[in-house]
Design a protein that fits this description.
259 residues; alpha/beta; Rossmann fold; 7-stranded mixed beta sheet; 9 helices
Length: 259
């Protein structure tokens, strides 16, 4: 079943991590966040909202449709007066016109039906001031094609359950289609970049297994039963052996457009 972002069972699914240096490096090449007003739409647990605040944003608005995710974001950013929590949908945020300098959406558009993505892009365009920047970060099919390895844990999913490739193919954005969509709603200077981002470091296999069992941070795991996940864990354990300090990395595509 698809992930239920409102379920209390998925509390803290998108917490417990920090944005990594390679992400900071790319963002600072794309935009100067200092003294900017930034909306993190589809903020989840607010990991990247907090990162924008650390980079000097004047104000960060955390937007998500899920009260559970917003509760996590509020917990993660507690005590920071320049971070605001706002319930809203990526297609209709409820934020004022021309109110933001940067719109950031990470791992969001693969949850939006392809026919609605241009509506999402148009909403971002509406929110931005003239000269404002829209940054999208998501995985294409090309980004997830690598086989399983200590660095690419996600690849083991498709090694064991090939049918998940079809599931991903139906929801993953196409690099060129996103570029065309951004241009169609008015964005200029549209470009796409590749990003290899460290996801996390597992001290041992047990820590990795626990996160997989909890379906933490990977919505695709909600397509598998508990028994299927248990089998997947056994397969990964056999492949990794007694590896420690397992460094998991993710390949991403990052698109940028200017209003």
């Amino acid at each position: 079943m698809p992930i239920n972002f409102n379920s209390p069972e998925n509390r803290h699914s998108y917490l417990g991590r920090e944005a990594q240096q390679e992400w900071f490096d790319l963002m600072q090449k794309l935009v100067d966040p200092c003294d900017k007003e930034i909306a993190d739409i589809g903020c989840g647990g607010g990991i990247y909202s907090l990162a924008w605040q650390k980079m000097g944003a004047k104000k960060v608005t955390c937007v998500d449709f899920s009260p559970q995710m917003l509760s996590d974001a509020a917990e993660n950013t507690q005590g920071l007066p320049n971070i605001v929590i706002k319930q809203g949908d990526a297609l209709c945020t409820g934020l004022p016109d021309s109110s933001q300098d940067v719109i950031f959406e990470r791992a969001l558009i693969h949850h939006i039906n392809q026919e609605n993505r241009n509506t999402c892009f148009a909403e971002a365009y509406r929110l931005l001031r003239s000269g404002g920047v829209y940054i999208l970060q998501d995985r294409t099919m090309q980004d997830i094609q690598l086989p399983g390895s200590p660095e690419h844990i996600r690849g083991y999913l498709f090694d064991v359950y090939p049918h998940l490739r079809n599931f991903e193919n139906q929801r993953r954005p196409d690099k060129v289609e996103v570029i065309d969509g951004l241009q169609s709603v008015g964005f200029k200077q549209v470009k796409a970049f590749s990003l290899l981002e460290k996801y996390t470091v597992y001290k041992n296999f047990s820590q990795l297994a626990s996160e997989l069992l909890a379906r933490k941070g990977r919505s695709i795991l909600h397509e598998l039963s508990d028994e299927e996940i248990a089998y997947l864990i056994k397969h990964i354990e056999k492949s990794l052996g007694n590896d420690t300090d397992i460094v998991e990395e993710d390949f991403w595509t990052v698109w940028i457009g200017v209003k």
